[in-house]
């Protein structure tokens, strides 16, 4: 009985090795599923976005007509779009100019291997792995104009209570604060790993040359960190350009468009108002922007950035 | 090493560091503490002005209320189905793909490799409208496959595994081939065990990403049928200026938050490592 079973098993194995295994030895078979999925859900959508930005498409009426650049015309003459575009640039600029230096500062202070330093690092990293929904709910509560604790704290410092995301003036700022709060721990971690990769001998040499701390920081730490900066700037820009969750959850772009950002605008225009061509034109402009920034960053990285 | 003297300069340094640490801890621990305290308050206490720090008596039934109100179990099942299926799918699609690019030579390898890493350059959020249109043509809106299949392919997972697979020694794989090991056995018995830390890291990353995902769930679903937990919290959230039951929202929020937090406690190092690479997404 056992012998028979073994014989069957051996024959099965033989069949498998001869007929089926060669198929999977072919590298194209191994990569095929990934390639097919990539084409269906990344390449084709990108091409579709570009194509549809030159078309007027109406799925209800069955219209699909080439209209040249008229979608682009219509977004650039739309004050709403221009405001959204401006908001996105402000959001990006403030985040890059404020959040990254803050991260460097915190990282320099926390760059010591003691329990309390590591604990603090882990604590500030935590929000990064929490869903935007939790973060938004928590901050909407903290920023509640009537019952929120933030206004109470401001009151102690003699500052008038703010309307936070309910006022045109502070809505975008509220979004920026929450977004910086969430990503600080991540940025600090990246800067810390950059700091730790700087060889100690360089600092020793600087010390022997009697360089002071500030000078050492600007002449050694900053240049040696430049690859880290490039990485952080690129990822920050890409993530600020694709911010959606916070806007949708906290302000829906309002009040009066004051906190609306590009991806949410695409959602409003294409998904809620069915103006697909116009939304896609906005998307293509965003794509171009991200492309230009990636390329610019890449060339900068090759030219100026310090390598070991 | 000699012990450094406490010069005034060093004292200033220590004080400054202490101030920074205290400020950071307050800014990050206080909101969470306040969230926990609110989740145990009564409706009356929540709407007190100025608010109290701690509830008079902890209202544990807030959690049961939130559970019922959110229909927590329904969304929990969806969250588990979507994230587990995505992880399994990614395993079968991305591991062989990364293995082929790392260890095999074939024509058009460079072009195909560039193609597979396409997602790293074009953030999917920007082309979501086209993905939505494709899914509605396929009839995948409001289905599990709609939330799973597009995410089985992940440029990041492939990229991350590819880097590790490249460092595996060729001799072991060649020896296995001489021993008449099938391609399946090479992947399952040699490549995967040798790259175990990377595989675990990728699985964790995908899990965190899918568990937290709000964007795609909100785009690719129109009813509650297959929606995941983040959507349940959103359903609780206030619209405009309405009177809010913050205690219920915070209780629900903590229930969404808890699994990630426990995972984080157990795998801080792994999670930090994967995000160091994953920043691209």
Summary tags:
heterodimer; A: 308 residues; mainly alpha; MetI-like fold; 2 domains; 3% strand; B: 281 residues
Architecture overview:
The complex is a heterodimer of chains A (308) and B (281). In chain A, strands 1-2 form a two-stranded antiparallel ribbon. Helices cover 74% and strands 3% of the residues of chain A. Chain A folds into two domains: 2-52, no CATH class; 71-303, Orthogonal Bundle (MetI-like fold), CATH 1.10.3720.10. The longest helix of chain A is centred in the N-terminal third of the chain and has 32 residues, at 79-110. In chain A, strand 1 and strand 2 (63-66) form a beta hairpin. Chain A has 308 residues and is mainly α. Chain A has helices at 2-25, 27-52, 70-76, 79-110, 115-125, 132-142, 149-156, 171-196, 200-208, 213-224, 226-241, 245-251, 262-272, 276-303; strands at 55-58, 63-66. In chain A, 38% of the residues are buried. With 281 residues, chain B is an all-alpha fold. Chain B folds into two domains: 8-63; 71-236, MetI-like (MetI-like fold), CATH 1.10.3720.10. Chain B has 15 helices and no strands. Chain B has helices at 8-39, 43-46, 61-70, 72-103, 109-116, 128-138, 144-152, 155-166, 170-178, 183-194, 196-212, 215-220, 229-236, 246-266, 268-278. In chain B, helix 3 packs across helix 14 (246-266), helix 11 (196-212) packs across helix 15 (268-278) and helix 13 runs antiparallel to helix 14 (246-266). The longest helix of chain B is centred in the first third of the chain and has 32 residues, at 8-39. Chain B is globular, with a radius of gyration of 24 Å. The model of chain B has no long low-confidence stretch (mean pLDDT 86). At the A-B interface, helix 1, helix 2, helix 4, helix 5 and helix 6 of A face helix 1, helix 4, helix 5, helix 6 and helix 7 of B.
């Amino acid at each position: 009985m056992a012998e028979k079973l073994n014989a069957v098993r051996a024959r099965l194995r033989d069949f498998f090795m001869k007929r089926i295994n060669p198929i999977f030895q072919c590298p194209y078979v191994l990569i095929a599923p990934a390639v097919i999925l990539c084409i269906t859900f990344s390449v084709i959508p990108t091409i579709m976005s570009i194509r549809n930005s030159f078309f007027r498409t109406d799925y209800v009426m069955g219209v699909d007509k080439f209209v040249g650049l008229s979608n682009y015309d219509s977004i650039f003459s739309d004050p709403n779009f221009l405001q959204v575009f401006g908001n996105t640039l402000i959001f990006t600029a403030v985040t890059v100019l404020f959040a990254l230096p803050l991260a460097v500062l915190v990282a320099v202070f926390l760059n010591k291997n003691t329990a309390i330093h590591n604990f603090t690092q882990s604590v500030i990293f935590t929000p990064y792995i929490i869903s935007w929904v939790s973060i938004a709910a928590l901050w909407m509560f903290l920023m509640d104009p009537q019952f929120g604790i933030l206004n109470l704290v401001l009151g102690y410092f003699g500052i008038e209570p703010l309307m936070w995301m309910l006022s045109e003036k502070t809505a975008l700022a509220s979004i920026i604060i929450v977004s910086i709060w969430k990503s600080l721990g991540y940025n600090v971690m990246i800067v810390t790993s950059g700091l730790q990769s700087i060889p100690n001998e360089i600092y020793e040499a600087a010390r022997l040359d009697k360089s002071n701390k500030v000078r050492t920081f600007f002449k050694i730490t900053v240049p040696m960190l430049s690859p880290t900066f490039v990485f952080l700037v690129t990822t920050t820009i890409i993530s600020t350009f694709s911010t959606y969750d916070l806007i949708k959850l906290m302000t829906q772009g309002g009040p009066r468009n004051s906190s609306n950002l590009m991806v949410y605008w695409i959602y409003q225009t294409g998904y809620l108002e069915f103006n697909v061509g116009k939304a896609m034109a906005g998307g293509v402009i965003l794509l171009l922007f991200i492309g230009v920034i990636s390329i610019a960053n890449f060339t900068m990285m090759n030219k100026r950035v310090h390598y070991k | 090493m000699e012990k450094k003297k406490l010069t005034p300069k060093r004292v200033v340094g220590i004080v400054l560091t202490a101030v920074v640490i205290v400020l950071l801890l307050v800014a990050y621990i206080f909101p969470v503490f306040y969230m926990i305290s609110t989740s145990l308050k009564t409706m009356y206490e929540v709407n007190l002005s100025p608010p109290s720090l701690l509830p008079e008596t902890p209202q544990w039934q807030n959690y049961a209320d939130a559970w019922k109100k959110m229909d927590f179990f329904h969304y929990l099942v969806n969250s588990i189905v979507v994230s587990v299926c995505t992880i399994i799918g990614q395993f079968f699609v991305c591991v062989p793909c990364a293995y082929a690019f790392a260890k095999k030579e074939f024509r058009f390898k460079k072009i195909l490799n560039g193609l597979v890493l396409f997602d790293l350059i074009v953030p999917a959020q920007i082309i979501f409208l086209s993905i939505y249109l494709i899914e509605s043509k396929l009839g995948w809106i409001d289905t599990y496959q709609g939330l799973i299949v597009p995410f089985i392919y992940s440029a990041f997972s492939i990229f991350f595994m590819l880097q590790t697979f490249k460092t595996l020694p060729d001799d072991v794989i060649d020896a296995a081939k001489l021993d008449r090991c099938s391609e399946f056995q090479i992947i399952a018995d040699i490549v995967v065990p040798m790259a175990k830390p990377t595989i675990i890291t990728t699985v964790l990353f995908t899990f965190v990403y899918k568990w937290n995902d709000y964007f795609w769930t909100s785009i690719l679903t129109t009813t509650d049928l297959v929606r995941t937990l983040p959507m349940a919290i959103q359903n609780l959230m206030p619209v405009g200026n309405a009177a809010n039951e913050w205690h219920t929202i915070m209780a629900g929020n903590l229930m969404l938050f808890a699994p990630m937090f426990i995972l984080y406690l157990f795998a801080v190092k792994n999670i930090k490592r994967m995000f160091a690479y994953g920043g691209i997404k």
